[in-house]
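Regression report. Comparing outputs from two consecutive submissions.

Submission 1:
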Amino acid sequence: MKTLNNQYRLERDTIGEVKVPKYSYYGAQTVRAMENFPISGIRPHPVFTRAAVFIKKAAAKVNNELGCLSDEKSKMIIKAADRIIGGEFHDQFVVDVYQAGAGTSFNMNVNEVIANIAIESMGGNKGDYSFVHPNDHVNFGQSTNDVYPTAMRIAGLLMLKELISVMAELGEALNRKAQEFNLIVKSGRTHLQDAAPVRLGQEFSGYADSVAKSVERIENASISLHELGIGGTAVGTGLNTHPEYTNRIINELQKLTNLPVRSAKNRFEAMQSNAPVAEVSSSIKVFVLELIRIANDLRLLSSGPKTGLDEINLPAVQPGSSIMPAKVNPVMAEMLTMVCFSVIGNDLTITMASQAGQLELNVMMPVMQYKLLDSISIITNALKVFISKCVNGITANKEKCYQYAVNSFAIVTALNPYIGYSNAAVVAKESRLTGKSLKEVVLERGLIDEEKLDEILSPESMTQPGLPHQDDSYK
């Protein structure tokens, strides 16, 4: 390593010499990646970087215990890793998310940063890899091919913890609204047409259960991420590792991450297949499909206020128009829906990348990890503000709901058990044509006496199982 001037140092890799910014902790291979892949400007998610550093720390400790790495080098690598895990040096992880297949550029970025932090701690100059070498020491017993998918799974599991927690908060918020609105009767709607009455709380209970089931789906899917292929190195054989390395590094990763990870039953399968990532992504996609449906319902229910349904009020969080004064839009539901669309797009990318592996490796892992972690991140953040700025503040227009219920032709459904479907249809048609109420038509035709008819046509009684008025006289 040579110093060119106050701006650069000269490093050499297997291709040749590279000018590296003098004060950077990354090295030659990272610089090459920066030059080769100026694609999106998006850098790796900090959680993914931390997951990779967990692996480097665990490997340094295990390789030292097995006599494959000196005490001093192991100690310095672990110390460097701890500093990164603690939040330092994250500006040094600069490789674009769209990069060389399999993630070699990212893995070397991590190796070089750790090596140079260690070198500096040992009194050396950055780039003097005689102290600690990125490949020979930091990457000892590893390959990008087992490090990258392992880091991808660990990062996914770490980020899913927060997502699942926020999903549970959403379910609880919807359940609170279900209880708050439990006695509010409204018109049901199917095909966007009037249907039998329901309670507003019943609608919201359906939303809450949809979220709860989505939590179960994602938790079940995430179990497959627990199986790690670390120790397989280049092609799954474990070349260049100590025979005890795999079990020991799995144990170490369990301690570092507090995750119930385990060694893959078949490391060849774990390296060839990224089905676990596709499975988790798919479960998140199913969840956001439910979210889109719920968000659209909230927009419909709050539409108006004068020319829409106006059954609920969403909190006003910002002015809704640059030209129409006092207009307020359902912006939080709109934002959530757009985020969900992005997640669906991410899932399609992951789907295509998952099937694109060949033989011993799927080289499309960089785009898979980027899209998976992006999906988890944006839906987690979106839900946080959606709960606090929308769901928690929803109120109901009780009188408007009730008027829709009592004025709906669909309440004629309750007459079916007493006068038959055909007669009920005639009553509804006459009511609609003449403008007379359902009650007036039934009484004029002498089909049911008034007292019993009032009981049958009570919207409240129609929102639970059973006959609104039950006796044997109309069988």
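Submission 2:
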Amino acid sequence: MGVGDFMVIDADWTLVWITIIVWAIILRSWEKSGILDRWNSSRVFKVILMIRGKQGLKILEKISKPRRFWRAYGEVSLWLCSLALFAVTLVVILSFISALLSPPTIDPPSVSEMVAIPGLNPIIPLGWGIIAFVVSLVIHEFGHGLIARAHGMRVRSFGLLMLGPLPLGAFAEPQYQELMRAPRRERLRMFAAGPATNLFAAFILMIMMGMLASQVVAINDHIHVREIVKDSGADLGGMQPWDTLVSIDGQEIIGVEGFRETLGDYSSGERIDIVVRRESGLRETITVNLTDKHQYYSELGWSNESLVNIGVEVGDPFLGVMGMSEGTAGIDRLAGPFSPRWQGNTLETAISVPIHSLTIMLTPFQMNGVAIHPFEQSLLQAGDGMIASLIGLDGILLLVNLFFWLMWVNILLGFTNLIPMVPFDGGHMFRDFIHGSISAVKRVGKKLKLWNIHALKVDHFASKASSLSSMFFFIILIFIMVVPYF
């Protein structure tokens, strides 16, 4: 790490600490003047504002009336989160092993990039980020509250945890004694309902994103390229990322399949003239020397057998472009298997949904903090649908950004809360899973008259296992975040 890297980190931390200190002073003055009491709020850890509200309880009571339905919802949530908890645990452990055996060689992120605070993190825009976090946190806690009420547990209040104008979390306050006395499965449902509701909300938003994707069409049928292979024919010929391919040797290029069919008429070593439209809108004609596709992939380490299996032969032409996409690619990428242009069957759609949930988390990193690249937006126009006729392209893109950030934050909260460490929901679930497993062993031993574990020992062992798990995963996460700096 160079001197400049330390200066960036120091500057980030300075801004963070100044913000926290100023906010602590403001909270202290509000506390002394009685403002926090009038707001039914209090300070937590000196710098966090805990804002309580009663209005949400009335809404909660009305919605939670069909108790049987919400208990069934809690059971589905428990199964979903049990699977997701296992997957998250596996991913964290594998990431730790990978960081241990193969430390990253790329430059480490700055402090601001490591915290999911809208505006401070460069990939999370302040406006959309605050809206998405507040809504998603309320959804999360409302899920907890619904299942608590479905099982007869009282909820004292709802609220938000704030650090200045930025939301850090939300909370539902069930009666602690009732929560602890509740049967283990009911408590597990309550803990699972929060992250599950986030994941269900993200799924609904994906469907809504697909509806929005059906309301737009591409301005034209040409394709554009997102990446240029270094030292390839396209690179040496002057092609640039986001160039649109208009024609090859006078033959118009229509769609990705049209490009492949046209290029398939050539062989490596031939020269072609390509008309491209730059991101600026200007048209240019460039001359490209086609290289050998078989040789390119062989140099990347592909075996001859693998290349034969995918239909690549010696002499096949290689232009040197990656990410060939049609005009609707930006919004189709967000809608995933729910895009009207998705060509998979029902089984492929079902398999693609969880994969899409994970890949969509990379979008802000790939697009520098936006849902759709501005160039990809410029390729869209409103279609003939009812929504398009009512709000136009600008309204559709506004909803696309709103739905995307809501989806992104809901997925983030859903999976993050399933890390098996307290205070996350996954940590509480892990403790109850351990307690249930030991209780099962106790029952078997008692039935077979082999052993009889005292109930207090079961509680003690479960609590101890939960504490060690939390510490273990905390150390792992810190290691994964810190190792890039060494």
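Expected: both submissions complete independently.
Actual: both completed, but the second showed a warning that disappeared on reload.
Relevant detail on submission 2: The two ends are 8 Å apart (CA to CA).
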